[in-house]
Structure formats: C-alpha cells, structure tokens
Amino acid sequence: MSELRTYADAWVTATASLQQLVASLSPADFERPTDCPGWSVLDVLAHLAALERELATGEQPANVQPIEGRGPAAWWTEAGVTERRGRQPAEVLAEYREMVARRAADLAERLPDDPGGKPERTPGAVAWDNRTLLRNRVLDTWVHEQDIRRATDHPGGLTGAPAEIVEGIFSAAWPFVLAKRAAAPAGTRIGVVLDGRRSDYVVSADGRGRQLDPAEADVPDDPEGIDDADAVISLNREALTILGAGRRTPDDLPDTALLSLTGDLDLAGRVLAGLNVTP
C-alpha cells in the first residue's frame, strides 16, 4: 500500500470514529469546554466541518477578522468556527458527514500519486505537499476526537492506525526537541519509554539530536532505569498526545495519562515543555 493511501485510509477510519462518538453525545455534552482555548465540543466539530468543506469544495470561511497576537492561520480557523455558532449540533454534524463523504469519494477515485506534489487545495492555502496534507488530516481529526473524549468523559480510541500515525508524528520530534528546544549540550542523552517501549536520543557533536540504534543504545534491563541516559521520560500514548498537541502542561495531565521522570528532572522538564509540535 502506498504512503498516501495509508494516510487516506487512516483519515477515513478517524472520521468514522469521530462521527460515531459525536452522534452519541447529549445536548449538554456539546456545550462542554475543551482543551482548545475558547472552544466548546460543538466548536471543535464546527472547526472540522469548516475545514473539510474547504477541502471538498474550495469554499473558505467568510468574514475572516484579525485576532490580536495571533497569525492569519488562526484568523481563518476562528472564522470557520464563528460562522457556525448558533447552529444546532445535528446541523453541524450533518455538514461534517457530507463533506467527509465527498472528500472520501474523491480520494477513492483520484488519490494523488506523488507525495511531494502540490495538492489542489490546502487549509487556508498553506504551502503543504500531498504527504503533509493527508498526514495532517489524520492528525487533526484524531487529536480533536481525543479533545472531545476528554471533555465529555468518553475515553477510548487510543489504538488503531490513526493513533499509530499520530504517535509517529509526535515521537519523531524528540531529537529536535532535545537538541534545540531544550538546548541540551552535545553528549546529552535521554530515554523515552512509551507504553513500555524504550527509545534513546542523544545530541551529537554537531549539536543535532538523533535517535540511537537499539544495538547502540544498550539500555538497562529495566526500561525506566538511567544507565547512560541523563534522564528517562516514561509516558503513555495519551500523555504523548496531550503534550505533543500542546493541550496541557505535564502538571495538568488527566489521571489516565501516565507520566514519570527519572534522573535530571530539569532536563526532562525542558524536553517536555518543548514537545508541542502540532503544525
């Protein structure tokens, strides 16, 4: 299966799961605040409906207004949400379903064959290639499903292809975060234990972060042990998602999002603070 087909299929899976979740919510659930500042559950659904409408039809949000302290992408995003305020949840869900169905049918018939090629449309006309667009549709859809699940106390959906793709996106950021955002010096090494699976990262002499080959890493028998690492960060997929998407701080994770730190706590804290990599 091609890379783009993998992303397209995972997006279809994510949209189906989100629709099933939203259809099960009560009227009060749609009014609940989410971890997206200023957005209710219905606002999150409105954002997704607006974005899929643009990708399916080319129709962009009307009346885009500048927002102090935020860039044009945020203006565009908020406009799509604002113009749907006052609509009933069933109406917004129906719009989302219709646009997703149109997009899915189009991708089934005309899936691009060049990952690096230019898409016909991107959200807000950002300069993405086909790979980035389709991958980020999985990311956006699945992460927002998790936003809704946390807000309405409907846990789940943390396994399957969309979850694995998002995990890969966030996990790929560890070397950059360690070397650049945490400003760790050459030779610094951290271990990351994700759901019991450990990977190690080090800052090379050129100041760049890289993942160590498993044979090179020589990790201790206890995955959470220090050994040659300066710090070890242990977490589950839920915690990685919340932190990678910039939804909460490590101190404000829900009880189900497990996180523990060993070794140089200052270093681990700087790494976690820089993990927000949502595009």
UniProtKB/TrEMBL annotation:
SUPFAM superfamilies: DinB/YfiT-like putative metalloenzymes. It comes from the Bacteria. GO terms for molecular function: isomerase activity. Gene3D superfamilies: dinb family like domain (1.20.120.450). Residues 13-149 form the Mycothiol-dependent maleylpyruvate isomerase metal-binding domain. InterPro entries: DinB/YfiT-like, Maleyloyr_isom, MDMPI_metal-binding. Keywords: Isomerase. Coiled coil: none annotated. This is Maleylpyruvate isomerase family mycothiol-dependent enzyme.
